[in-house]
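FORM 12-B: Structure-to-Sequence Request
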């Protein structure tokens, strides 16, 4: 069946931007700007955490990996979109499509699980402060992050392997802006019941379980915070969770809409907007959320900028 796929369909055409036939060159600039902001913002967060010793703790260790994942998610989709804008052809080869799908599912699945791990870190810090150093030791943090990457990779490998069994019978137009499982299932002409069931079951494990874990963690966190008598103490506890909560709402909210919307009753333009929000806009917003709302990160960024300015002042370029 795999050979049949490649003889019948050697590539796909994305229809996501077909509603803007003469505007691709104008779309190129905003998408390029979004991609550069995503790269610079997440890279800046990563470097600042690595350089500033005051940020060497589990919370920021996980944030480093979140920044790496946001860079990866954006890099899997946006460069191909930019190339297609310039070439005026929204195409991708069969093998490139499978590769894009594999890495996209790997990174998004890993990020979903990582956000649950970050929620557990906040739970341990607020609800189990006396045991925090043991619960979130360096070894435990490394194992947890490694497990999230393995979990995301295994889920992706399963979906990608099943996608190679799909037959397209010459149909190569994808109603999407990048390769993903649901758009491919819509144009498959053979029985895809196993694939559809796998997607449904996997969504419960890869999204439903982490989301329930996050909700449970924050329910326990909220109960502990309400027991704090001082207003300042409550405010401090809430501030350590604020950025993570906003990221969770954005990521899971967009993800649920992206993967659980009905197959009918929505336009291609709406589909494109939802997909753009999920895999392109959200990775750009995450570093902004953490840098603006997190006092420690904000302070470290200001310190780095001030140090850079002093270095340039003492060492002027001749």
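FORM 12-B RESPONSE
SEQUENCE OUT:
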């Amino acid at each position: 069946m795999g050979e049949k796929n490649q003889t019948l369909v050697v590539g796909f055409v994305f229809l996501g931007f077909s509603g803007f036939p003469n505007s691709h060159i104008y779309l190129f600039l905003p998408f390029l700007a979004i991609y550069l902001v995503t790269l610079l913002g997440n890279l800046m967060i990563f470097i600042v955490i690595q350089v500033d010793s005051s940020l060497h703790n589990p919370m920021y260790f996980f944030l480093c990996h979140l920044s790496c994942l946001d860079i990866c998610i954006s890099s899997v989709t946006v460069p191909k979109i930019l190339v297609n804008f310039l070439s005026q052809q929204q195409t991708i080869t069969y093998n490139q499509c499978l590769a894009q799908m594999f890495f996209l599912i790997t990174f998004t699945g890993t990020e979903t699980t990582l956000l649950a791990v970050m929620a557990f870190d906040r739970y341990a810090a607020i609800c189990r402060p006396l045991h925090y150093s043991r619960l979130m030791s360096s070894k435990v943090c490394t194992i947890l992050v490694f497990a999230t990457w393995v979990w995301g990779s295994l889920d992706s490998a399963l979906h990608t392997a099943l996608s190679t069994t799909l037959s397209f019978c010459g149909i190569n137009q994808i109603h999407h802006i990048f390769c993903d499982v649901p758009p491919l299932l819509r144009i498959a002409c053979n029985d895809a019941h196993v694939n559809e069931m796998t997607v449904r079951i996997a969504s419960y494990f890869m999204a439903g379980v982490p989301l329930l874990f996050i909700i449970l963690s924050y329910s326990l966190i909220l109960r502990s915070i309400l027991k704090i008598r001082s207003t300042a103490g409550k405010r401090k506890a809430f501030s350590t969770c604020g950025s993570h909560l906003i990221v969770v709402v954005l990521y899971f909210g967009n993800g649920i809409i992206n993967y659980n919307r009905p197959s009918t009753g929505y336009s291609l333009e709406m589909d494109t907007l939802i997909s753009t929000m999920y895999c392109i806009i959200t990775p750009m917003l995450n570093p902004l959320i953490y840098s603006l709302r997190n006092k420690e990160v904000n302070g470290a960024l200001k310190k780095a900028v001030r140090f850079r300015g002093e270095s340039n002042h003492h060492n002027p370029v001749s």
